[in-house]
Amino acid sequence: MRRTLLIGLALAALSPAGHAAPPPPVIITIDMLRGEFVAQSGSDKVYFAGDSFGLDANARATLAVQANWLRLHPEIMVRVEGHADDRTPRDQALAIGERRATAVRDYLLLQGVPAWQLSVLSWGKERPANPGGGEMNLALSRRAVTVLMPR
Amino acid sequence: MIRIAAIFWALALLPAAAAAQTATTVTVVAVPPLATPKNEHTPAGDTGALSRQIAEVIASDLRASGDVVPVGPADLKLYSYPEATAPSFSQWRSATQAKALVTGFVEARSDGRVTVGCYLHDIVAGRELARQGVAIAPAEWRRAAHRCADMVYAKLTGRAGWFDARIAYVAESGPALSRVKRIAVMDSDGTSHRFVTAGDSTVLTPHLSPDGNRLAYVSFAGGRPHVRLADLSSGNDRPLLPDNPAMSFAPRFSPDGRKLVASLAAGGNTDLYVFDLTSGAVQRLTFTPGSDTSGSFSPDGSKIVFSSDRSGTPQLYVMNANGSAQQRISFGGARYGAPAWSPDGERIAFTRSGGEGLRVGTMTPTGTDERVLTAGPRDEGPSWSASSRQLLFQRSDPGGVRSSLYIVPVDGGDQRAVVTPLGASDPDWSAGGGK
What we know:
Structural class of chain B: mainly beta
Order of helices and strands of chain A: HHEHEHEHE
Mean pLDDT of chain A: 85
Distance between the termini of chain A: 35 Å
Strand order of the largest sheet of chain A: 1-4-2-3
Strand content of chain A: 15-25%
Oligomer: heterodimer
Low-confidence stretches of chain B: 1-23
Strand content of chain B: 35-45%
Low-confidence stretches of chain A: 1-15
Number of helices of chain B: 3
Strand order of the largest sheet of chain B: 1-6-5-4-2-3
């Protein structure tokens, strides 16, 4: 208690009279970084057709921009999460999710994102993009999401 | 695990003509209320009341099979305790059209349990076909009824009884985008329901060991999907591969319960492995760059059916249990997955994915005689009854919002819902019988 007071007095003595206190440090939350990442990359998701795990031109373009951002943010870890639509039997959905996530991981590696920054996970068909059926919801579920995490 | 002490009396297996009829002959069987030597109080009700309730469950089990037609217990005459073992066949011949008769008794024991005797008679020939007795806690009277129904069903159809069996499944609650999933176990008739996992992690595809004591399933606990083994009596729960960073899933026990077949996925490649649960030995079975998953042993343990997309689309393959002689069997112009080999070895059930959505069907182990049994659009994950006559599967509504369990006879016909307290998916029927 007494020591804290002394330091406080010392700081007061050092700060030039008439000036405001220095601005508080800017705290960047992971949510802010995620927002910036999505804004700059266009999307944190890429989509797949049918049973495929191949990356089309749209997906590759998105991932190239994602990779640029990730290379500049080595403080961020990335988990690529692969998903299947719910017209896929459960076990196969886990396998195809892993394959999609790995395809994205491999492309990010190719674009220069270091391996230690990247991991993969499959959700199978456990996390659909939207509730309800319909071809559009199925298509939106066949995806891989680049999830940013604090290191 | 429910412990029951079973006393099997010498089975009076007379070489009767009515024994082991073919499944195409539907036998009518009379199931009057059981007898009791003395109406005594038990914690589950008086033995007189139990006598009627047990007969009701026996009749209800047999009716659900579709292979045997029970009459009673309502409107059938009562008989005395001595008549359980020596029925008056001439009276039964005039009283009913039934060809077979189930009798029995409920007797309170000095140790607090009850003895439930069960007899099957051929009314026409006037002789006993089978008998068994079970000493059981009064509260477990339903299992005594199921075991009696198993005996009657096995004797009349020549197939394994399947009423004293358990169902493991995934209980689902909460919204579709953040579903809470818990492993649950119940008796085949929906009673003795309990949860095995707490719902804090997503869990999938429970499969019971042949003795019904252990459960293999997939859990996302810790983030990564991986196979876990739960001991249902001790509550012990552990990962199959504690130090392996690969994703593991699709576990299924071998028929002797000593091994587990499961898939490991890493680097965009999923392959099948067999894990020896006692020695810890691991054997890799597939080496293709595609996804090889959903392994299911043949009942003699010599072969494994699985799904693979090595041809470009998911199809069914059969191989020897050591991984040799892998051969595609599905050529029906659709995608196939979730194969399950029937307990009698005759057929393989599957989920078929095509323009109609997901549907459940069967084919022979060589891929011939494909039959689609359900209309879809979201029917999947078939599991066999011990009799190989019924399939339990998961049906989701067209919007994929709620799933529930249904049973379909393998010859087609009426489907019936299995009542569960919450939404339900990934059903697994234990082998049933001799537990």
